[in-house]
Target: NADH-ubiquinone oxidoreductase chain 3
Amino acid sequence: MMTILIYLFILVFVNFILLFLGLIINKRSYMDREKNSPFECGFDPSTHTRTPFSMRFFLLAVIFLIFDVEIILLMPLTMNIMNSNTHWPLTGSMMFLMILLMGLFHEWNQGSLNWMK
Model:
């Protein structure tokens, strides 16, 4: 029990030393106008807040989120394909990719992604 308390004390002491050194060494300016102004997704915050938002940025963000989630779903499939004795993980991943690509082509042909052409 005593060794745990000694380790805890050493860790807290090292953390305070590092925090104190960081506060002494930093060269941040707190009076900088640019750093104190809010940042609103690339728009100038002094303009009117209800300006219309471009659909290009919205669609790009949605496509990024969809493919980001799809990549997270595909990552474990490689290990399943390598460790499996059957063809089902490979078949399932191919069907998943085909559905994903058909959805992308459908969106492209519907005109929502005309800006990408």
In short: The first helix runs from residue 2 to 25. Residues 2-116 form one domain. The mean pLDDT is 77.
